[in-house]
Amino acid sequence: MGYTHYWYRPKEIPKYKFHAIVVDFRKLLPLFRRLGINLAGGLGTGRPKINDKEVIFNGSKYCGHPKNEISVPWPAPQVKFGVAPKPLNAVVGTWFAGLVLDQRTCNGDCSYETFYFPRVMPDRYKPVESILYYDINGRPVYNDGRVVGKYFSFCKTAFRPYDLAVNCFLIIARHHLGEDLIVRSDGTATHWVDAVTICFNAFKYNDFVLNDKKVEPFSVANNHTLTFLQGGILRIAERNRQIKKALSEEFGRNYVRVNGNGGYLQSSANNNHDSYTTRMQRLAILQYVTNLEIRPSEELRSLRKLPIQELDTLHDE
Fold first, then answer.
1. Do residues 185 and 159 lie in contact, with contact meaning Cβ atoms separated by under 8 Å?
2. Domain boundaries, position 112
3. Burial category of 33 from C-beta neighbours within 10 Å (exposed 0-12, middle 13-18, buried 19 and up)
4. 279 pLDDT above the threshold of 70
């Protein structure tokens, strides 16, 4: 019992396609770190495996988040982007088995079930058969024909922070594998839209299908420009209260702060002494999740000459 994602895939994925999936996913690793998502090995310790043979990761067992009594969590119908800065603030209710959250968080241990996605499924796994089960009268009940012959996998994330990384990986994999990968989830489009938006703005992928329905990326202000100023402050060139309100509600005040009517947004990680790389990564985060055209200020460009397009080359160190 718990919040889970499911998928059906081929036994073997062509090497070039699996490599493309891995390359894309690795580009998002700096973003995950900036969002406070610490990926670890399959058991929640050590380093994740992200290579051309297999992808295995989990949240970090020793994440450093405060211990609390959050158990058997389930996402609320409407949730905020990213990870809650204070775990207990994400609790908005209960369901029959546990607590309801409006943002990803943990109980002081960010690990849960291992996410496992190998290029070739081991022989111990068997493909889905045509007959699902026999009813009380002995008549067969059949599986959806689209999943017959595919290999079933799942990952119960319990809406831990690494849930966002799992979502992003499956969105990337679905783009490269097309209908060969079928993704289903206990969640709805609302719970996946931040990951869909990240992948849309990072890679321009807009073809993700969840539970047989296409999920559209979040967009509030196409063709608006944000200017990156000293210390991570962003100014919307066209001051639009509706845009500011939508950004604040969608991503949570822990992520962006609206300052009066002046049209300013400020990332919570603001630090005037941040390095060039840190500040450019923060700029990249906002570009990924807001679908706004963003350009660095002349002050930032003077620190190091780097075209904005090169943000896409961020990679794991």
1. no
2. 4-214
3. middle
4. no
